[in-house]
């Protein structure tokens, strides 16, 4: 599929299923967006496109895995992708130009759907707000940068939890 546009000319009224896989071309397409990730297995998108009077109804599912930098410790965070979506893409919406990358275009005598862009948008929507290596990731020590998942650093032994030191003081004052 060159440039990621899918010809919608011969899709029957009951719709048609497609399967797309993130390939080198898609990765090239998304490399302009500033998001670092790797795909340990190919990202797959199943979609069904159903022509309607005023546009196209699109329903689909995105599946795979992506590896990001953990938001807390910067090690690899593998995120499972299993995301269902559906939307209606209207023919000739007047505001289309304002919304950035169009999902639908008319070429010669047929419509085309921007598969690369759809895959990118749904990929972004599928991601969790926090990308973590594990739910309980302890992150990096704010003082020395030590990965606290690998054990405590010297900083935590020396100063301890600042909230605890208040209790220590209280005890001393009482005594
Ligand atoms: Zn982590
Ligand atoms: Zn430390």
Describe what you observe in this structure.
It is a single chain. The protein is elongated, with a radius of gyration of 24 Å. It is built from 4 helices and 7 strands. The protein folds into 2 domains: 5-137, no CATH class; 140-175, no CATH class. It starts with a strand and ends with a helix. It has 175 residues and is α+β, with helices and mostly antiparallel strands. The model has no long low-confidence stretch (mean pLDDT 87). Bound molecules: zinc ion (2 copies).
Give a short synopsis of this structure.
With 175 residues, this protein is α+β, with helices and mostly antiparallel strands. The protein has helices at 24-30, 115-126, 154-159, 162-174, and strands spanning 5-7, 16-21, 44-52, 55-69, 76-90, 104-107, 110-114.
Secondary structure: elements and pairs:
Blueprint: E1 5-7, E2 16-21, H1 24-30, E3 44-52, E4 55-69, E5 76-90, E6 104-107, E7 110-114, H2 115-126, H3 154-159, H4 162-174
Antiparallel strand pairs: 1-7, 2-3, 3-4, 4-5, 6-7
Bound molecules: zinc ion (ZN) (2 copies).
């Amino acid at each position: 599929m060159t440039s990621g546009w899918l010809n919608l000319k011969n899709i029957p009224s009951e719709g048609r299923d497609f399967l797309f896989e993130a390939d080198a071309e898609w990765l090239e397409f998304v490399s302009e967006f500033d998001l670092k990730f790797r795909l340990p297995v190919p990202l797959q998108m199943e979609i069904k496109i159903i022509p309607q009077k005023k546009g196209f109804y699109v329903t689909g599912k995105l599946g795979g895995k992506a590896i990001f930098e953990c938001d807390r410790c910067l090690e690899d965070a593998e995120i499972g992708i299993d995301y269902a979506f559906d939307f209606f893409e209207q023919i000739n919406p007047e505001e289309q130009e304002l919304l950035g990358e169009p999902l639908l275009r008319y070429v010669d005598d047929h419509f085309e759907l921007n598969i690369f862009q759809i895959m990118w948008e749904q990929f972004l929507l599928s991601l969790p707000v926090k990308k973590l290596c594990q739910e309980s990731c302890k992150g990096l020590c704010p003082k020395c940068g030590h990965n606290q998942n690998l054990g405590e650093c010297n900083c935590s032994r020396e100063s301890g939890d600042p909230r605890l030191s208040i209790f220590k003081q209280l005890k001393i004052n009482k005594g």
